[in-house]
Amino acid sequence: MFLGMSDRVKPLVEQVRAMIRDEVVPLEHEYEAEIGKAGDRFAMTKRQIDILEGLKAKAKAKNMWNFWLTGSEQGYGLTTVEYAYLAEEMGRSHLAAETFNCSAPDTGNMEVIERYGTQAQKDRWLKPLLAGEIRSAYLMTEPSVASSDATNVSLSAVLDGDEWVMNGEKWWASGAGDPRCKIYITMCVTDPDADKHKRHSQIFVPAGTKGITVLRPMQVFGNDDAPHGHMHIRFENVRVPKDNLILGRGRGFEVAQGRLGPGRIHHCMRAIGQAERALELMCRRAATREAFGKKLMDLGANFDIIAECRMEIEMARLLCLKAAWMMDNVSKVEAAHWISQIKVVAPRMALKVVDESMQMHGGAGVSQDTPLAKMWTGLRTLRFADGPDAVHRRQVARTELKRYVNRGPEP
Amino acid sequence: MFLGMSDRVKPLVEQVRAMIRDEVVPLEHEYEAEIGKAGDRFAMTKRQIDILEGLKAKAKAKNMWNFWLTGSEQGYGLTTVEYAYLAEEMGRSHLAAETFNCSAPDTGNMEVIERYGTQAQKDRWLKPLLAGEIRSAYLMTEPSVASSDATNVSLSAVLDGDEWVMNGEKWWASGAGDPRCKIYITMCVTDPDADKHKRHSQIFVPAGTKGITVLRPMQVFGNDDAPHGHMHIRFENVRVPKDNLILGRGRGFEVAQGRLGPGRIHHCMRAIGQAERALELMCRRAATREAFGKKLMDLGANFDIIAECRMEIEMARLLCLKAAWMMDNVSKVEAAHWISQIKVVAPRMALKVVDESMQMHGGAGVSQDTPLAKMWTGLRTLRFADGPDAVHRRQVARTELKRYVNRGPEP
Amino acid sequence: MFLGMSDRVKPLVEQVRAMIRDEVVPLEHEYEAEIGKAGDRFAMTKRQIDILEGLKAKAKAKNMWNFWLTGSEQGYGLTTVEYAYLAEEMGRSHLAAETFNCSAPDTGNMEVIERYGTQAQKDRWLKPLLAGEIRSAYLMTEPSVASSDATNVSLSAVLDGDEWVMNGEKWWASGAGDPRCKIYITMCVTDPDADKHKRHSQIFVPAGTKGITVLRPMQVFGNDDAPHGHMHIRFENVRVPKDNLILGRGRGFEVAQGRLGPGRIHHCMRAIGQAERALELMCRRAATREAFGKKLMDLGANFDIIAECRMEIEMARLLCLKAAWMMDNVSKVEAAHWISQIKVVAPRMALKVVDESMQMHGGAGVSQDTPLAKMWTGLRTLRFADGPDAVHRRQVARTELKRYVNRGPEP
Amino acid sequence: MFLGMSDRVKPLVEQVRAMIRDEVVPLEHEYEAEIGKAGDRFAMTKRQIDILEGLKAKAKAKNMWNFWLTGSEQGYGLTTVEYAYLAEEMGRSHLAAETFNCSAPDTGNMEVIERYGTQAQKDRWLKPLLAGEIRSAYLMTEPSVASSDATNVSLSAVLDGDEWVMNGEKWWASGAGDPRCKIYITMCVTDPDADKHKRHSQIFVPAGTKGITVLRPMQVFGNDDAPHGHMHIRFENVRVPKDNLILGRGRGFEVAQGRLGPGRIHHCMRAIGQAERALELMCRRAATREAFGKKLMDLGANFDIIAECRMEIEMARLLCLKAAWMMDNVSKVEAAHWISQIKVVAPRMALKVVDESMQMHGGAGVSQDTPLAKMWTGLRTLRFADGPDAVHRRQVARTELKRYVNRGPEP
């Protein structure tokens, strides 16, 4: 179980770190300031697009692109463990993942198409996604049901001749606000009378298809996260070709499972990067700011707080690396146990570190003057996105208990 | 130590509860929707003003007004314990406190003027504040220093003939965004060479005085809290009459201490009301929503989570009532020990309850569809507003240890 | 809701505090040292008995006796709130409760007899218990079943002519090790075919009845708690008169419920007294001991730790007093909700305070040189004695949710 | 950073696990039952010695011996990472470590002699220790000073001709109760006027030297841990030869630091093994015991509790392995940072897991019927043995902050 940085990935980590520090972070504020200048917060200004596409062009030119394609013959063919070190770096800036074409939900969507798509589907959707020419969304969660139990998902798709006719509502369609978002992968019910886990399918639905209404952006603690957005979308008799079906009727859960593993762990990797940046900010603050005649670091419990953050980050990172290693080395089912663990641990840890960092900063910590508040709200959604903590804990406990059920007390 | 609801306050609680439920809450959404319609988010629309002033007029007409004037001959002459029950009710809606002219920072500012103001100052500022005709702000915190140690406050006021000439910056001036805000009570340095606790004074500065620039609204987790606002303000050679000084030169801390006690506990009372509403929302959700074939309440640890929230609310409420009783019955110095306790406990408890409630709601919990996210961000600022947790804990420990210093081990 | 110390109880608290400080605590070490000197750790030496009976005689002579008889015409007729202040004092020494004839399990057993006993039963058992002449045990828990669900209790009692014939095993019979323990109140199954809650009865069984074998003392973290003891007892064809039945066949749960409320809250009151003593010890240590050139109190997070302990004690005490007030003022069913709350809160709080105090003491904290380790192990058992935390939390949540089931979301 | 089980250590882990399961654990109860049968609890019966020496002889015969000699040319030459897997197994039974001659404090003492001893010292003390023929103790902590700051250590050693004359008191001398314990490594002050860190030396003192009085065993939560024992020892004019000095005058801290690193991490490794056994017991209990008509595992928060335990164990193990890897691959100073981290994390985690397991077991959990209570008390002492948590956290924070002091805010 080699969890260190491999010789192969070490220079990549350096390159990615340098580019984020020298080229991405310096543009953060300008990018932020552009939001809304086009009138509609979800219409991007030319400058906004230039910033993003400029960064992407630079990264692509240096072949710093699509690192997430792990275990693949395309690109670098990194292991998941190797990618973890890169993703952590990308966590430090909210523009970084897209710069390297490694951002959610595109990476997960690309995995779906690569793994389950037909050649035609790949040509149409995967190619431009891999090239960073378009973006995509994944439509899963619905407002009227507890989507933590995905069998509740109810948007219906009925075959009418050569077309699926789709009706229902989705929300938290992340990235669907972006004008460059061209395709939705949509979980829906195609076979309502089948067994519970055979009712659902996934279908490609091009953004802008007739019958689609983007009702509103969902707000996260008051923020619309424009222009990315987490959109609430209505489908009214939306028609798409029969061939837009992915993998097969009733195989929606199979597709979902294939998609969710990597997506979950990528979120965790980036969360660790955020925690590192938050701890760095906390330490810098503690080492410079003064109150009551002392540096903050020399007051009260601040040494203890900093030590606890360091220890929790280390443990979460190691667990994340182990989960990554499992993805590289054991079956998907076995790895799921580890992904569930890190999915609970990483966001919670990062929330704690960011919260402590905010507290060390006082008012500045919750304001626009530090990246901490934005980090916190994003991380908070991770505690239920891709499955709430409770569901993942249940999964972990089940695996644990399976070894003992019907075995009796200790021999 | 009578901590129950007195016979006198019981009907008032009923009235306040009913008015909030029947008249205030139903206008919340409309009020929210108005924000920004005037173009500038800090310019209120006529409808916005009508909503607020209409509610105030109704409350005033029923004599449901200025309840916060505890231990006073004016108004109801409630005890702090009695007021606690009313303030808790007001915590349930963010429009409620203003409806009854009980909102921060006005109540604290009015206390200052009533207690320390000259008759002329009272006539000019207290009267319209008591009548709800104007609003006010309290300018304390500064961006360039750790204001948790208030001796760091540095905005300077130099006497030049009959005028104070003021220079410096303040931020987190809550309420200063409101166009109805007409007066700032401003902590400043008038005697830089005096003893550390004798350097500061408080001065009335009318909003809009020449030399004042409102630089920007501070954001709280991305929200500007318009039109109330937490403003960042620059003073450049701002001139105000000599008589605008409160109480006397070098007595700024004396004034601050008188102001902060009640303000701190009022925040806590309302925090408890917010926690109650969050728990109610959590229970309603748990009792209706279904996943995995069960009501949410019947899944996993949800019974335990709900029980813990109930117990923590009860304990925090009792501690808050005891602190209120102390304010009514012991010296300010002794009561401070209790206020520090509840100032640490109440926001933390409420944050926890709201966080659990958000988690039970999934995506809806962090969105605009429930009041939870707004509650959370507001409560989060309470952990450093009016003194960060660490400072209050230090205060509590000091009182505790004083009994044992130089006493040796147990006899 | 008056939760303060009443004028009536104030002098009693002073008296009790003084007697514990001046007469009970000074004998603690000598009493401890006697244990085991008689050879059998459960055979008390003359000196041991003299210490206990001497203290009792003194207390009785001063009429400091049977304070626990709340709401009764006998004795002081204290309210439960008043008694709470006395019980807290008694928590400070492990010999104190018995000194005043206020110790578990006797108080609970006396309540049972007073409330449900026949005159003959009262004459035989209650009188000597009230007089402190004998002691008693309560036999509930069994080794072979999860007794947290009391319907599992299985020791059988079969009527054979005028006698009950009893067979089965009990453990954790606290106090049954004491040679002065003369009577067991025993929960058993008399009507196995009845409804689940009508199968059990409670029967008086004199200690030493033929067929009873005391198998062993249960150890608590390695301690046998001699001579009190928590005994594991076997019943083999134990015969007692038919009239030893309490209240009636199948009414075992009714009796149990009447018994448990007061017993639970008394434990909590004493736990708070223990926490106070632990905090005092921690502060004395922190204020005297030096390391790294400073007093311990001035190192690291120690101020914060002390402050947290103070705040948690205050909150738990207030909740305990509120639960006591409920016992005095509302129905038993309503009060149960509050007793469940404090039953979860008080032991957990006290464990935390004692644990922090141990940590401040280093090695001494877990050793025989401070009372902390003994406190900790005793308190730890309270987290499942008289119902584990999980069962009480369930109770609290149930009451909470009842208000919302079938009510839908917030109106 | 390879943290997995190497091919070399895999079969050893299997062998150790099998021997513990098949030969050590089955003798645990008999061994326990022997304690005290010789009258004096610290005098071992023949059977007791036979059990221990029998196990040792078997292990030695199979060459399962002195695994702890990491990075050494003697024995297996395992890495610390490899040894971690073995030590974890040994954590599962309290007789296991001694069986393989891997128990504290002998391993630490042997390291000291191997690293710093003269050939004569090695011949006299190291040889029989490596052979398992004698045992040893390490005398550091003193009752009258805060020994968490080791510069406080005050037992004096004055050179008088060719002899050191030693006076003072030590306590918590673990293992000094064992009649087979023949040598004490003793930290003392030889140069009281030197610089603070140059005052102390370490000296070999044979057990039983004239002037030594073993005052009493310290109790840990009431247990004397006989026959191992944690002894309180007085030195009155104890004379030992000048050559018993280790390494050199004033080099006591140098010796201590060399000793403590491995000792601390070995404790942590075993703590993880204990946690694993506690979790296993909890799961077995949860999967078999019934209450309220359900298996315990299907009640309340038990799934969540089990999942949290699994996740915390995994993280602590990974951190422990990383600290071990650091010991193998970086300087002692750098590794210290990691050892401090795991020293805080592992005991805390294990205490939590054992506590939850106890709660799942109810009364049985704190009693002699499970190994949990004994585990808990042992683990609790680890939170201050070899440095209290606070000191280790301080160490971790210092390393963290060093990177930022005088660096200012984020560039």
From TrEMBL, chains A, B, C, D:
Name the cofactor(s) required for activity, per the record.
FAD
Sequence intervals crossing the membrane: none
What SUPFAM superfamilies does its record include?
Answer: Acyl-CoA dehydrogenase C-terminal domain-like, Acyl-CoA dehydrogenase NM domain-like
Annotated GO molecular function terms are: acyl-CoA dehydrogenase activity; flavin adenine dinucleotide binding
Acyl-CoA oxidase/dehydrogenase middle domain location is: 137-233
Q: Keywords in alphabetical order, please.
A: FAD, Flavoprotein, Oxidoreductase
- Superkingdom to which the source organism belongs: Bacteria
The cellular component terms of Gene Ontology attached to this UniProt record, alphabetical and capped at eight, are: cytoplasm
The keyword S-adenosyl-L-methionine is annotated on this UniProt entry: no
GO biological process terms held by the UniProt record? fatty acid beta-oxidation using acyl-CoA dehydrogenase
> Is the Cell membrane keyword given for this protein?
no
The UniProt entry, under InterPro entries, shows: Acyl-CoA_dehydrogenase, Acyl-CoA_Oxase/DH_mid-dom, Acyl-CoA_Oxase/DH_mid-dom_sf, AcylCo_DH-like_C, AcylCo_DH/oxidase_C, AcylCoA_DH/ox_N, AcylCoA_DH/ox_N_sf, AcylCoA_DH/oxidase_NM_dom_sf
Please report the stretch or stretches of sequence annotated as the Acyl-CoA dehydrogenase/oxidase C-terminal domain.
250-399
| Subunit | Homodimer.
What family name appears in the similarity comment? Belongs to the acyl-CoA dehydrogenase family.
Q: What is this protein called?
A: Acyl-CoA dehydrogenase
